[in-house]
Amino acid sequence: MTSHIAYDAYEALADGFAAKVDTKPHNAYYERPATLSLLPDVAGKRVLDAGCGPGAYAEWLLDRGATVSGFDASPSMIAHARKRTGGRAELRVHDITAPLDFVADASVDLVLCPLVLEYVMDWRPVLRDFHRVLVPGGTLVVSLQHPFTDYTYFKSQAYFETELVFSEWTGFGGRVRVPCFRRSLAETLQPFLDAKFALSRVLEPKPTEEFRAADPRHYAELMAFPAFLCIRAEKISAHTTDGTNLQA
């Protein structure tokens, strides 16, 4: 039984999402290019695709020589991802809020987590687990809903609170009510530092020229104010005052 707050929403969205993920401008021409720009060379690397959805990122990684394992809370999304990757990736149904007990310590070079953390209220346990599974110096790349955009879009009256909010998605066929958590800028960045990550890039992306051609109205909006935030971070070690390594 999953505790993922968006389980029902993504089960309902899965077929439409999988069909449009390569052409829907906000995904194909905005979030994905920005997130991919933060990745290191993945050839020969072990990558954990955390919240893999229908497998668009997993396929990209595999085609560039990575060894990929991944998970998603939605069984329907995993079915699409398995079909898309043709058995080349090790994919499973798993809720990101549960421990990654199937991933060994220091066994992954890169964790990729695209547009997933907004469905988690407390990021700290998740980020500590990402830190645990990464090799020393390993990379974490995430994309997120921008906290300032969320604050205005959801008309929040409590900026400093982490709030459960809902939006209606109509872009993948039908109308689906999707829950997520909005949070302050501090609660967007501080959990990475608490989990012993060093932030190396913070990107507020701009839409691509392909986006302009596909959707001029939203292109103009995103050139004025971002919808997403992309972060690259590296695993650092903790040490005691006498120099003992506390690497997790």
Give the H and E element order: HHEHEHEEHEHEEHEHHE
- Sheet/helix structural class: alpha/beta
**What name does the CATH topology carry?**
Rossmann fold
Spatial strand order of the main sheet: 3-2-1-4-5-9-8
| Beta-strand residue fraction | 25-35%
Structure summarized in a few sentences:
The protein is α/β, with parallel strands linked by helices and 248 residues long.
Features:
248 residues, alpha/beta, Rossmann fold, 7-stranded mixed beta sheet, two-stranded antiparallel sheet, 9 helices, 35% helix, disordered C terminus
Overview of the molecule:
The protein has one domain: Vaccinia Virus protein VP39 (Rossmann fold). It has a 7-stranded mixed sheet with strand order 3-2-1-4-5-9-8, with helices on both faces. The chain has a two-stranded antiparallel ribbon with strand order 6-7. The protein is 35% helix and 25% strand. With 248 residues, it is an alpha/beta fold. Strand 4, helix 5 and strand 5 (134-145) form a beta-alpha-beta unit.
Task: Map the helices and strands.
Layout: H1 7-20, H2 25-36, E1 46-50, H3 56-63, E2 67-72, H4 75-85, E3 90-93, E4 108-114, H5 124-133, E5 134-145, H6 147-153, E6 163-169, E7 176-182, H7 185-194, E8 197-203, H8 209-214, H9 216-224, E9 228-235
Parallel strand pairs: 1-2, 1-4, 2-3, 4-5
Antiparallel strand pairs: 5-9, 6-7, 8-9
